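Structure (tokenized):
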């Protein structure tokens, strides 16, 4: 249902399927993970929250292998467009910022959150801006 809705939105709004997938579909499918993470944080289960986030993202990467196996026109990776590569670079930059956050630990940073959270939010805002202005 999410894929069909995303495809229809892409057609009716005349927005690329990559933009719909990277923005709306990704947010929609990530909301349950957000809810469970917030519930774990409210209970003080910080390791459960972090494990859920990292595990969920690791599992998402496994979807690429399953999608590649299901794609009948060859390798899925050869069908990647430039817009997909843009979001891949944004994702890699976010991962780099998060890795730096694991190396350089701080209790509080800008706006009461760590620099890595500010960096990830800034990168996502940059991605949104570039995608919308296209």
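Design, position by position:
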């Amino acid at each position: 249902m999410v894929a069909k809705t995303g495809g229809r939105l892409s057609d009716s709004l005349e927005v690329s399927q990559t933009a719909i997938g990277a923005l709306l579909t990704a947010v929609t499918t990530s909301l349950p993970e957000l809810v469970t993470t917030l519930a774990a944080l409210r209970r003080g289960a910080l390791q459960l929250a972090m494990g859920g986030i990292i595990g969920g993202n690791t599992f998402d990467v496994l979807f690429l292998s399953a999608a590649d196996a299901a794609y009948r026109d060859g390798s899925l990776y050869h069908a990647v467009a430039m817009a997909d590569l843009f979001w891949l670079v944004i994702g890699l930059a976010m991962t780099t910022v998060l890795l730096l956050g694991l190396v350089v630990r701080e209790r509080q940073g800008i706006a009461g959150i760590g620099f890595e959270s500010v960096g990830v939010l800034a990168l996502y805002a940059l991605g949104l801006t570039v995608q919308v202005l296209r």
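Reviewer-requested clarification: The longest helix spans residues 17-42. The mean pLDDT is 85.
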